[in-house]
User: Fold this.
Amino acid sequence: MFARSALRLPFNFLLIKGKADFILAIVMFIILLPFIFLAALILTILLKSSPFIMQARGITGEHKIFKIFKFKTIIIDKTNVNINGGNILYKPHLAEYIPAFCGWLRKSGLDELPQIINVLKGEMSFIGPRPLMISDVELLRLNYPELYRDRQSIKVKPGITGLWQVYGDRNKGIKNLVALDLEYNERACLWLDLKIIAATVLLVLSGKHSDAIIQGITGNRKIKRQVC
Assistant:
């Protein structure tokens, strides 16, 4: 997808990026706290439960497992609590359990905001590979063992947004996700991060974030080839 470069994940870039993540997370948390509080209040009323969930996720089953913080957007009951659907990238069978406000949070990507806490804890970066639910990690291991092994080579932290999150195509399947995650792992640099940030802002403002349940854009966004 991008032109090759001899500069691959220089240590200084990762070190600076980690410090920048922490500082930016503090600033964003303070600025966004009123919205987070309001969204949490609305979700508490709609869902009649805690507005937050903690969900185990990781790059693979043996690599970078942690508990992600998210806004709760699905009404969970005995009929759907264990539904997986067998598909990592599409779960439309859960759409009926998502109220309108929750759908908006998902389409805008704002349901991911509590992950700022994960960035503050050093478990995530703002930009990086997509962390998968453990059930999806298991599907990947069973159905795509080669892709699973490829994903084990990823060294960068998982991200709230990332190359696949903004430029990926769900219609191209899990191979597209793994390819772009590996692409970022190899090509990470400041210029690429700035491109991803700009694309993420546009997705949030347009409400066209690609989602497994509430369908948005599925890969029509393109990025120019570049050298980092």
Q: What stands out?
A: The chain has one domain: 17-206. The longest strand covers residues 52-58.
